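Record type: ASSEMBLY
Status: queued
Input:
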Amino acid sequence: MISIQQVTKMYGPKFAVDQLSMEIAQGEHLALLGASGSGKTTLLRMINRLIEPTCGTITINGEDLTTQPAHLLRRDIGFVLQANSLFPHYTVEENISVVPNLLKWDQQKTQARVTELLDKVHLPAAYRNRYPHQLSGGEGQRVNLARALAANPPVLLMDEPFSALDNITRTAIRQLFKELEELKSKTIIMVTHDVQEAFEMGDSIALLQNGKLLQKGKPADLLYHPANEAVKEFLAGSYLSLALAATPAEEIWQWLADKNNKRS
Amino acid sequence: MNDLENFWGFIVAHWQKLLEQTVQHIGLTLISIMLAIAIGVPAGIYVARKTKLAPTVIGITAVFQTIPSIALLGFLIPLAGIGPTPAIIALFLYGLLPIVRNTYTGIIGIDHNVKEAATAMGMTEHTRLLKIELPLALPVILSGIRTATVINVGVATLAAYIAAGGLGEFIFGGISLNNTNMILAGAIPAALLALLFDYLLSRLQQVKLKKLSTAFITLPLLIAFSSFYFIPGIRHTGLLAGFTPEFMGRKDGYLDLRSVYDLQMRHVVISDAVMYKAAYDKELDVISGYSTDGRIKAFNLGTLRDDKHIFPPYYAAPIVRTAALQQFPELEVVLNMLTGRINDSIMTDLNYRADYLHQEPEKIAADFLKTQGIWKAPRGGHKGVVHIGSKIFAEQYILSNMYAMLIKGYTDLDVATKTGLGGTKICFEALRNGNIDLYPEYTGTGLLVILQSNIATTGRLAQNKNAVYNYVHDQFMQQYQIKWLQPIGFNNSYALMMRQAQMNQLAITSISDLVKFTDKE
Ligand SMILES: Nc1ncnc2c1ncn2[C@@H]1O[C@H](COP(=O)(O)OP(=O)(O)OP(=O)(O)O)[C@@H](O)[C@H]1O
Ligand SMILES: [Mg+2]
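Status: finished
Output:
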């Protein structure tokens, strides 16, 4: 669905993203993983044209991003930043209604959508009249997600959406993200530098280093069939816990059974 | 209690004038602030986009603020003349800095994530500005507007110097007429206005301004308010007079001009610092000047004959605290050395050198003493320090320099000068409180402004300059322990002046001619 072809972004002489190509399928949940400075954010932002590539092309459904004005493109792409990106002078309801209003939805439809989304992200209906400073970090991030989903965009981009949250809250929100029915059908690209998070949230992972793509594939592929030493090295630190996360329980039983059979 | 009654009495007697000045003051402030908003907010927005330009643009607006207000008004006269236009331009320039700076910092200070979110949601630049940036920056912008408004209420008092009206008319009139009630009648409303505007804007700041439109509701309100003050057309047909605040309040000034000559003429109030130039530039046709002023010659003005004798001639003489004379007895002889050496035409010529040839008052003073053969090199004595004051005009600067040189040359005393005390009241109060020991004063001013003598007394003394001298001499001694030394010799009196060319063209030579001419108009 999203096709990135030979995309490069240079800052002065430095390559933030270096001749990178990848395909992202409809409904794929991709985790962009990599060390700090590897180019994850830069790549993500080129997809909604917050950053323009130095060269290369990006298409969505075969259509080059640059064929329509950037602001129209962005209305079809949900974007979740870290915490504190809500508009402080807008209520929760007004925050969520931003894109529907830009798209000139009628009031009733928008209001109904706000009600629906508050329910989906597990916030009490009464919160619609609160201001962002009256919300906890976790609640803020739920609103943030609701805001990104408001106009039903087919694509959702997220840049370290959980990084500003404490551990317990983060777990709860991740859980919400995983369970949310609405998200299942969407194409999602999520940036993270947390390996655990990438394996937990992504049904595929793209590992970046110095602006280049090291490997893109299913979590288990990266783990068991690393494309090169660099991938192996990157994942080495948390191999065991990742292995457990990436491997379905039946497979483990199977594996244990095999061992037992061999022994007897 | 009595003072309060006096003050109240003044207000009651002059409430119409006070109201008029207050409305003018509000008008000057609001019009200039609205211009500053109209230009300053977009400029602030612009430099918040092009941050590289910010230091330059904010720097330029800051420069305007560093120019002393009176100097800024002075610069503007050749460009915009006198009256409300240059005053509004000056106030506008003053208001610009806080508004541009606060708009800029208000927008720049918004959380980067918030701005980015707005763009990422698909807002256009324009929508983002209107819906996100301006509302979030509004409290900061409003506090800039607040600062600018309060500054401008204060600076607008100076508009009275250039015939733009406002509460400064009472303030400066009161200062030069030694009338505390008049000063307060201008200063108190000005202070109240500043407080009022500050309060109203602070209320506006507290209103949760979600949508910018709410803020703009107040705008038409402001426009309606300031339209009370329509800019009075300076360029009417017919002659226009400019009188100093002091002249306006003196019996031997505007009051007798009305009662004795029955002159009915359009006039504005203006500072003598800019009045002569304004007459020369044809902004004004008739002005109230001093007969010895060098600018009469410099600007080719002519003096109207005072055919009904309302401007009596007055002596100029140094006035000295008796305490200082007791401490330094040698002072009196030295100060009297000028006696008889300067007549009317010599004084006019000395003033001309300062006002037109732009020679330093110090040089003029030294040159004169040398030609008189009474200049002596300073002895460099340290027996004590004499403080000499002067008002803000050439004649006073020149005389105070002469006294300084004579004292340094003939005694072992040292001299400190405090020149440029802006008006009779300030000068005289400085003398009375011992901040200065002496300054040159005029008997007429002593009689009418300082002693505030009643009509019976002035009527009795009128026209006899020696009688006036004797009267103020005795009264000052009794009331203030201040001594009038010997008259220097020249006479100074008020005079009405016009451009020489216009006098010739209209065949006006006397004040009565002028009255006849204006009646015909
Ligand atoms: N505006 C910029 N100007 C110059 N260099 C930049 C700019 N933005 C990013 N870079 C550089 O490009 C490289 C990639 O940056 P990017 O923000 O994409 O990294 P990242 O993978 O998101 O890192 P992190 O995990 O720390 O957020 C970095 O080396 C960074 O210094
Ligand atoms: Mg990043």
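Annotation: Residues A 11, 16, 34, 36-42, 193 surround adenosine-5'-triphosphate (ligand 1) (CB under 6 Å).
Annotation: The first helix of chain A runs from residue 40 to 47.
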